């Protein structure tokens, strides 16, 4: 079986493309997921692209990833700034973790400037929109290869 990557998205990410302000771009979440599936496929990876509005579900998926995935990408959305349970679960994941955000969180409201989950992340990609999601896949694959060497 091919190596697996979990790409987890938090609250309201399912609304991408519907935001009139354009903060999160015009591409729908479904389209974004298809784009990410294609990118992972070019690396021979199985991608689990998921979204939940519920903190506990995200924690469950991170714990599941510990058993099945070699790498993890997460956009915890609004939970990035307040979720100790997500941080604790990520700290228990042995492979590389890429934290990603569609928008540049440091150009937004001050409360978004401090991510709790960054403590667990191998690296952070922010502000590049949908392209950042593809780059996160490339990055986690490269880190997975280095991690297994």
From TrEMBL:
<dbReference type="InterPro" id="IPR001874">
    <property type="entry name" value="DHquinase_II"/>
</dbReference>
<keyword id="KW-0028">Amino-acid biosynthesis</keyword>
<dbReference type="GO" id="GO:0003855">
    <property type="term" value="F:3-dehydroquinate dehydratase activity"/>
</dbReference>
<dbReference type="GO" id="GO:0009423">
    <property type="term" value="P:chorismate biosynthetic process"/>
</dbReference>
<feature type="binding site">
    <location>
        <position position="88"/>
    </location>
    <ligand>
        <name>substrate</name>
    </ligand>
</feature>
<protein>
    <recommendedName>
        <fullName>3-dehydroquinate dehydratase</fullName>
        <ecNumber>4.2.1.10</ecNumber>
    </recommendedName>
</protein>
<feature type="active site" description="Proton donor">
    <location>
        <position position="101"/>
    </location>
</feature>
<feature type="active site" description="Proton acceptor">
    <location>
        <position position="24"/>
    </location>
</feature>
<keyword id="KW-0456">Lyase</keyword>
<dbReference type="GO" id="GO:0019631">
    <property type="term" value="P:quinate catabolic process"/>
</dbReference>
<dbReference type="GO" id="GO:0008652">
    <property type="term" value="P:amino acid biosynthetic process"/>
</dbReference>
<comment type="similarity">
    <text>Belongs to the type-II 3-dehydroquinase family.</text>
</comment>
<dbReference type="GO" id="GO:0009073">
    <property type="term" value="P:aromatic amino acid family biosynthetic process"/>
</dbReference>
<comment type="function">
    <text>Catalyzes a trans-dehydration via an enolate intermediate.</text>
</comment>
<feature type="binding site">
    <location>
        <position position="112"/>
    </location>
    <ligand>
        <name>substrate</name>
    </ligand>
</feature>
<feature type="binding site">
    <location>
        <position position="75"/>
    </location>
    <ligand>
        <name>substrate</name>
    </ligand>
</feature>
<comment type="pathway">
    <text>Metabolic intermediate biosynthesis; chorismate biosynthesis; chorismate from D-erythrose 4-phosphate and phosphoenolpyruvate: step 3/7.</text>
</comment>
<feature type="binding site">
    <location>
        <begin position="102"/>
        <end position="103"/>
    </location>
    <ligand>
        <name>substrate</name>
    </ligand>
</feature>
<dbReference type="InterPro" id="IPR036441">
    <property type="entry name" value="DHquinase_II_sf"/>
</dbReference>
<dbReference type="Pfam" id="PF01220">
    <property type="entry name" value="DHquinase_II"/>
</dbReference>
<comment type="subunit">
    <text>Homododecamer.</text>
</comment>
<keyword id="KW-0057">Aromatic amino acid biosynthesis</keyword>
């Amino acid at each position: 079986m091919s190596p697996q990557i979990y790409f987890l998205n938090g609250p309201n990410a399912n609304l991408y493309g519907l935001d009139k302000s354009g903060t999160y771009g015009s591409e729908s979440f479904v389209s974004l997921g298809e784009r990410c599936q294609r990118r992972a496929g070019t690396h021979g990876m199985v991608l689990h692209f998921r979204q939940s509005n519920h903190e506990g579900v995200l924690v469950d998926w991170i714990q599941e990833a510990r058993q099945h995935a070699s790498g993890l990408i997460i956009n915890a959305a609004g939970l990035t700034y307040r979720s100790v349970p997500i941080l604790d679960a990520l700290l228990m994941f042995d492979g590389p973790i890429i934290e990603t955000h569609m928008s540049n969180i440091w150009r937004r409201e001050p409360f978004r400037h401090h991510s709790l989950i960054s403590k667990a992340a191998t690296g952070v990609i922010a502000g590049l929109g949908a392209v950042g999601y593809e780059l996160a896949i490339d990055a986690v694959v490269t880190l997975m290869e280095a991690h297994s060497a």
